[in-house]
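seq:
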Amino acid sequence: MSLRRYLANVVDSDSVEALWDAHVTKMGEYSFDRLLYGFTRYRTATSLGDPGDFIVLTNHSRAYTDVFVDEGHYFHAPMVRWALANDGVKSWKLLAEMENTKTLSAAERRVLEFNREMGVTAGYSISFKAASARSKGAIALTAQAGMTQADVDTVWAQHGADIALMNNIVHLKILTLPYNTPNRALTARQREALEWVGDGKTTQDIAMLMGLTTATVEKHLRLARDALAVETTAQAVMKAAFTNQMFVLDL
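struct:
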């Protein structure tokens, strides 16, 4: 796929799924056949927030993600820690340097050993510039099996500027598209009720506008709060806005 066609696909993508499929294909052309993207809006000094609120996109196997993501190994991964403290691009040769200088913690060594078992040994990480102190996004590009880090560094020397630019564009596009985990998705009625709240309407106003009883409107708002794991309707409006689930043409 030509760069121009790829960028056109990125611009025209109307879903995270379509965008991700195009990006995985494009990165594969540069020998990066496994990608792991993550983004949080709820970072603190000691936490990345509720994993249920993360945007996580990957084409790694379930055998890998069940451990690295679901069991929380990512929190001790050296390249994730680098990404949290930095912006820009970093070769995974940093891992060999940390091993040689014996600066890996026990938890970091366990992650490194697991990655080696799973063939995640060579690649690059890109940490995206954050718009706020609480948000952070990054992507790990894993090179195909059999490639050494020296091989990957050679690829990066030739194409790295383009690869970094494409990943930054995809990151910015992801932030404009609706995204939710299955247990945090809103129904059309829940979304509509929240949209009217966002417009400043009262429950009585919303009931008239939606042709429902006030009790039914209150039920939709309660279920929206439950789906988004928040306590107040104002928090639900904010969270739905963060995940681009409000005022959209289609989900």
